[in-house]
């Protein structure tokens, strides 16, 4: 191979030699780490950083998808037929309960009310006459001055006149109600959306023409979807004591937006539905959140917003957490960990299959395969894999081994 010249004009090492030199240096470094000699001069031991497994109480939470929905929704619909004369609100504004929103042409309803009142007055006059005649006949019947039939007819006429008065009063009340419906008012306090009708539009009571929608945002609901299997397991764990729930703890809910930011107010879980959705196989949970800006110009939360709700499942009294860097997977996809064991007065490492349930921060929650007090290798794993698991090891606390980084357990909530 023809050597190349360096920038001083001399000869340099051929470029093909550099990869060989790099591999040799790496091998020497690995060998040096693997041949840390013990004081007795016996078999060399590899120094590894370990994490000691502890059983400690940890509060378990779960984030579930959800959507916001208005606390109250009122569809303002026409209850009489007529032409819309006026719209008395600004779209998107805040309206009060009882505030008039529309005015429907009321001319025909005013005339109907006057007619009903006139009919009532006529019925009342007839009643007065019938009652007076019945009183006179009641005296005459005592002296047999009139026939019994005439007396009975007079009493019947008085009762019919009284019934006509009642019917007239009902007709007047009905006419007054119909007239009041020409003034379309908001049934609740909230924010009103766009108007579905304009001035001059003809609305009908028969089809209940939709005119506008008013929604109350403060407070606001969050409808949460939880898998039915998770809900059943959660109930079983609480019943068996695997999860302990303090009074009021399970009702607290935190809210997170799509970008991961947290909503500034804590909510309360109001109820859990008793029916599992056939299409989603999930159970509906409804939480209530304060939304102090929901009725202002810039709402804090709007209905239909996709969010993630964090619920508190309970406190596991003896949870075991292992740093994620100490857990890998075998060819079957099962989670495994390298655990320090003692044999023949020396310490070695064995690969053990474990069961993990979920991640908590940068740790795995281990439910099977490990015991409190055991040491899991979390540092110098690559060197250990290279030299093999049959070499003796010298466990040191994580963060103190060569080339290690600190490993800390998450704070128990």
Q: What is the global morphology?
A: elongated
| Number of extended strands | 22
What name goes with the CATH superfamily of the largest domain? RNA polymerase II/Efflux pump adaptor protein, barrel-sandwich hybrid domain
- Looking at the structure, the CATH topology of the largest domain is OB fold (Dihydrolipoamide Acetyltransferase, E2P)
- Give, in order, the helices and strands: EEHEEEEEHHEEEEHEEEEEEEEEEHE
* Biggest β-sheet description: 6 strands, antiparallel, barrel
Task: Give the helices and strands, then pairings.
Layout: E1 4-5, E2 11-12, H1 17-34, E3 46-52, E4 55-77, E5 82-87, E6 94-95, E7 100-104, H2 107-140, H3 148-180, E8 183-185, E9 190-192, E10 202-203, E11 210-227, H4 228-240, E12 252-256, E13 267-276, E14 282-289, E15 306-323, E16 327-329, E17 335-343, E18 346-353, E19 355-360, E20 363-368, E21 375-379, H5 381-387, E22 393-397
Parallel strand pairs: 3-22
Antiparallel strand pairs: 1-2, 3-21, 4-11, 4-15, 5-7, 5-10, 6-9, 7-8, 9-11, 11-14, 12-13, 12-15, 13-14, 15-20, 16-17, 17-18, 19-20
């Amino acid at each position: 191979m023809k050597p190349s010249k360096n920038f001083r004009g001399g000869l340099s090492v051929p470029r093909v030699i550099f990869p060989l030199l790099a591999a040799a240096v790496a091998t020497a470094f690995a060998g040096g780490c693997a041949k840390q000699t013990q004081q007795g001069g016996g078999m060399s031991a590899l120094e590894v950083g370990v994490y000691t497994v502890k059983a400690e109480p940890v509060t378990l939470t779960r984030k579930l998808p959800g959507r916001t929905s208005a606390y109250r929704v009122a569809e303002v619909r026409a209850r009489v037929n007529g032409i819309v004369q006026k719209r008395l609100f600004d779209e998107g504004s805040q309206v009060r309960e009882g505030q008039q929103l529309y005015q429907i042409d009321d001319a025909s309803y005013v005339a109907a009310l006057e007619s009903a009142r006139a009919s009532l007055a006529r019925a009342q006059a007839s009643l007065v006459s019938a009652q007076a005649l019945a009183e006179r006949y009641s005296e005459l019947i005592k002296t047999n001055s009139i026939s019994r039939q005439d007396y009975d007819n007079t009493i019947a006429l008085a009762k019919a006149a009284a019934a006509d008065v009642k019917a007239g009063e009902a007709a007047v009340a009905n006419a007054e109600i119909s007239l009041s419906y020409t003034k379309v008012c908001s049934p609740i306090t909230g924010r009103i959306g766009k108007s579905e009708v304009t001035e001059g539009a003809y609305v009908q009571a028969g089809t209940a023409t939709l005119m506008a929608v008013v929604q109350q945002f403060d407070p606001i609901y969050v409808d949460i979807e939880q898998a039915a299997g998770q809900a059943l397991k959660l109930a079983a764990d609480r019943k068996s004591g695997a999860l302990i729930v303090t009074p009021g703890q399970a009702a607290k809910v935190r809210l997170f937006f799509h970008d991961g930011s947290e909503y500034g107010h804590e909510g309360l879980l109001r109820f859990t539905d008793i029916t599992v959705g056939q299409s989603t196989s999930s159970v509906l949970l409804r939480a209530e959140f304060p939304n102090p800006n929901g009725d202002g110009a810039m709402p804090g939360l709007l209905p239909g917003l996709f969010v993630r709700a964090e619920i508190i499942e309970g406190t596991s009294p003896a949870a075991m957490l292992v740093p994620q860097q100490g857990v890998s997977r075998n060819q079957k996809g099962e989670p495994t960990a390298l655990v320090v064991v003692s044999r023949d007065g020396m310490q070695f490492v064995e690969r053990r299959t474990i069961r993990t349930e979920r991640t908590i921060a940068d740790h795995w929650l281990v439910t099977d395969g490990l015991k409190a007090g055991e040491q899991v290798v979390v540092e110098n794993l690559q060197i250990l894999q290279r030299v093999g698991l049959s070499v003796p090891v010298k466990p040191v606390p994580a963060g103190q081994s060569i080339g290690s980084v600190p490993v800390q357990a998450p704070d128990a909530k």
